[in-house]
């Protein structure tokens, strides 16, 4: 019950904050984005040794989100700072806020010490319609972390509707996952497969 209440409280806080932003006209939308958000630059995700490397989780999420067609996008916010959310784009997530990691991104406590970077994108109207995240893990095999994410999300007790589908992907040291409406999760998966070097689907299933 604590997990449910925490997630509900965070969702309510997000709605209140975002409502205030919209009432002000969202005049600072571009100011909330990093300066390179519209630069058009993309990382190949390759190192000189042929491995997979990205600057951070935010770069991973941006590559995916930018690949999705505009007509398939939805009102969203990114990051863990509900007072200054990134509007309609992914945002960096404060991994030191472990309560938010668990309540918002459904990261199990067993992974808290293994995550050193994260980014998120959440449907503004209902997080259960879409929540997507990328986490960078250290000291834990990404495939093992992906399985823990899968178990945590599929075993979670959701309110305000139940996600239809989950996908969990690994790429280098990153675990990328999304849950929500089937069509939005499918779009996220396809974009990830296209843009992320070495992307491997660990889990793709409907949630019941």
Give me the secondary-structure topology.
Layout: H1 2-23, H2 57-67, E1 76-78, E2 86-87, E3 91-92, H3 98-105, E4 115-123, E5 130-137, H4 142-154, E6 165-171, E7 174-180, H5 182-195, E8 200-206
Helix pairs in contact: 1-3, 2-5
Percent of residues in β-strands: 15-25%
Strand-pairing-aware structural class = alpha+beta
In total, the number of strands is 8
In helices, the fraction of residues equals 25-40%
The global form is: globular
Count of alpha/pi helices: 5
**Count of folded domains:** 1
Mean pLDDT, as a whole number?
83
User: Main β-sheet, in a few words?
Assistant: 8 strands, antiparallel
Distance between the termini: 19 Å
Radius of gyration: 16 Å
Spell out the helices and strands N to C. HHEEEHEEHEEHE
Question: Regions with pLDDT < 50 over 5+ consecutive residues?
Answer: 1-6, 8-44
Describe the protein in words:
- The chain is an alpha+beta fold.
- It has helices at 2-23, 57-67, 98-105, 142-154, 182-195; strands spanning 76-78, 86-87, 91-92, 115-123, 130-137, 165-171, 174-180, 200-206.
- It has one domain (2-206).
- The protein contains five helices and eight strands, in the order ααβββαββαββαβ.
- Strands 1, 2, 3, 4, 5, 6, 7 and 8 form an eight-stranded antiparallel sheet that branches.
- β4 (115-123) and β5 form a beta hairpin.
- α1 packs across α3 (98-105) and α2 crosses α5.
- The protein starts with a helix and ends with a strand.
């Amino acid at each position: 019950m604590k997990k449910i209440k925490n997630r509900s409280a965070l969702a309510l806080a997000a709605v209140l904050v975002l409502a205030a932003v919209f009432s002000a006209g969202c005049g600072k939308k571009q100011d909330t984005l990093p300066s390179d958000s519209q630069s058009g630059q993309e990382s190949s995700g390759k190192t000189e040794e042929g491995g997979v490397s990205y600057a951070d989780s935010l770069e991973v999420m941006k590559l995916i989100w930018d690949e999705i067609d505009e007509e398939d996008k939805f009102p969203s916010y990114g990051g863990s700072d509900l007072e200054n959310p990134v509007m309609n784009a992914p945002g960096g997530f404060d991994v030191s806020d472990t309560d938010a990691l668990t309540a918002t991104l459904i990261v199990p406590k067993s992974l808290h010490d293994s995550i050193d970077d994260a980014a998120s994108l959440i449907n503004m109207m209902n997080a259960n319609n879409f929540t997507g995240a990328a986490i960078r893990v250290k000291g834990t095999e990404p495939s093992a972390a992906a399985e823990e994410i899968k178990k945590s999300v599929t075993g979670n007790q959701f309110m305000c509707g139940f996600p239809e589908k989950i996908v969990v992907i690994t790429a280098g040291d990153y675990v990328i996952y999304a849950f929500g409406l089937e069509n939005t999760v499918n779009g996220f998966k396809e974009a990830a497969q296209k843009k992320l070097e070495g992307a491997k689907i660990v889990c793709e299933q409907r949630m019941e």
